[in-house]
Amino acid sequence: MRIATWNVNSIRARVDRVASWLERADVDVLAVQETKCRDDQFPDMPFVGLGYEVAHVGFSQWNGVAVVSRVGLDDVQVGFPGQPGWGEPVEAEARAIGATCGGVRVWSLYVPNGRSLDDPHLAYKLDWLAHLRDAGSTWLADDPQAQVVLAGDWNVAPRDEDVWDPAKFAHSTHVSPPERAAFQAVVDAGYADVVRPYTEGQFTYWDYTQLRFPRKEGMRIDFALASPALAARVTGAEIVREERKGKGASDHAPVVIEIA
Q1: Residue 143 half-sphere exposure, CB side, CA atoms within 13 Å?
Q2: Which of 70, 147, 151, 210 is least surrounded by Cβ atoms within 10 Å, i.e. has the fewest?
Q3: How far is CA 5 from its chain centroid?
Q4: pLDDT band at 184 (very low <50, low <70, confident <90, very high)
Q5: Residue 14: enclosing H or E segment and its boundaries?
Q6: Environment class of residue 161 by beta-carbon count within 10 Å: exposed (0-12), middle (13-18) or buried (19+)?
Q7: How many domains does the chain contain in total?
Q8: How far is CA 3 from the centre of its chain?
Q9: Which residue from 30, 80, 77 is spatially nearest to 50, judged by alpha carbons?
């Protein structure tokens, strides 16, 4: 089985590109982030035409996540237990959706950005990650053999080598000690980064500004964290940098894992 995650930065703007890549890459399940549309606006027909089912949650032109699968799409769940909300009144955002696909529980996650070190959104981000850790711990406590992947845009660069120039990020989000500790807490709960061993030194995101992509000035912020039972089945992984190229590309590249 091939499972991928991709922040597409607007599915309506890139549906043809995403569907074409799915077909060429022979991907079985795709976790999608930042769809930027409501459920009734999601362009599902190109995926259905290729034999995929779609589960999506989106409330507005912001956020939005989906799971696209050709190996089954069961027990769809919007949001994880305890997922914090944002806004006035406080409401859960469209940032998490889970489904069982071919025996694997796939979560598509779009972690809040954090914005800046003194912004309330950073506290929201840390709280969101803490509740994700708690939910993930419970899933493994309930079933140590659970096949779970937490896939998506985490908006955290866990190591200095995950940004093109650590000095440029010294006073920014994504690399702060609290954010890195929150990411590590999910790892410590039992979820392994199964992509890094196959993709050392590679990035998953390049900002549109200042020619970041051609200058190789990127970040690694998209991850697939697998439960112990699933991690044992991973036989390979790749970051598909080529999909960041060309007109109309997302600012993120797809990340793929191979499951035996």
Answers
A1: 9
A2: 210
A3: 6
A4: very high
A5: helix 11-25
A6: middle
A7: 1
A8: 12
A9: 30
DSSP 94: S
Burial 173-186 (b: 16+ CB within 10 A, else e): bbbbeebbebbebb
Can you give the pLDDT at residue 213?
Answer: 96
Query: Residue 136 gets which letter from DSSP?
Result: H
* Cis upstream peptide for 228 (omega within 30°): no
pLDDT in tens, 102-160: 999 999 999 999 999 999 999 999 999 999 999 999 999 999 999 999 999 999 999 99
Which CATH number fits the domain that encloses residue 196? Answer: 3.60.10.10
The residue range of the domain holding 175 is: 2-259
Number of H helices, E strands in the chain: 5, 12
| pLDDT tens sequence across 10-65 | 999 999 999 999 999 999 999 999 999 999 999 999 999 999 999 999 999 999 99
Q: Which pair of structure tokens corresponds to residue 232?
A: 């044992």
The CA distance from 29 to 104, in Å, is: 10
Amino acid symbol at 80? F
Six token digits for residue 27: 């991907």
Residue for token pair 């091939």: 2
